[in-house]
Amino acid sequence: MKQDKSTQTRRDFIKTCLQIIPAATIIPFGVVRSQGMKDQVYDPTQHNYGMGIDIDKCIGCGRCVQACKTENNVPSEPFYFRTWIERYTIPEEGDAFVDSPDGGMHGFDKKTVEETDILRTFFVPKLCNHCENPPCVQVCPVGATFMSRDGVVLMDPEYCIGCRYCIQACPYGARFMNPYTKATDKCNFCYHRITRGLSPACVEVCPTQARIFGEISSKPNPLSRFRRANQIFVLKPALNTEPKVFYANLDGEVR
Questions:
Q1: Which member of 35, 46, 165, 202 lies 3.0 to 4.6 Å from 139 by CB, making a disulfide possible if both were Cys?
Q2: Is the CATH code 3.40.50.11930 the one for domain 1-255?
Q3: Domain boundaries, the chain
Q4: How many CB atoms sit inside 10 A of residue 203's CB?
């Protein structure tokens, strides 16, 4: 049977993501085995990934942002991010103040208002929400943005035509136009890592374990335990995108 260009390109893209270990081989139906993991087979149909974020544990150190840029070759300019951190300052009177200097990459030192006037200050890491109903996938005219069988929303830069429809459609501001690839870019949960049984770079470097990565299922895993132990919130729930980034201790001021 002749395969269309979209199917071939997606398979090539996923294959590239998985070729971290030399001579990795692709087995039919998306099952992956590499020479470095001879006894382990990755089957995307057996996974459904998500991420948990505990707001109370985030200290705004910016290590996750730095690690993401390094791991995924995100442009070094301080306005391209796959993940970033926002600081929310809640004053005694007036609206909340939100800032994110350099995406929080170098931490937060400058005070926004006088400390005596502050009720609460906290940090909110943000990234692509890998929605169950992703608007970006719906609007892409060429299928460059798609959902893999393990629930991760991926982006094929080779197929992207740079129309920016997905950037406009994303309600979380999680996409940007990569000036070097000339294609849209975003978080992919470090797909080349998670398919090898590793955690995303941002999760691995977090000193307070504010980020939790795992399976969206009832089976015992870090994310399922996190969701059971906390009252869970998602960003912009009224949009019905069904995000798979789950927040604990999320303040109502977060938008």
A1: 165
A2: no
A3: 1-255
A4: 24
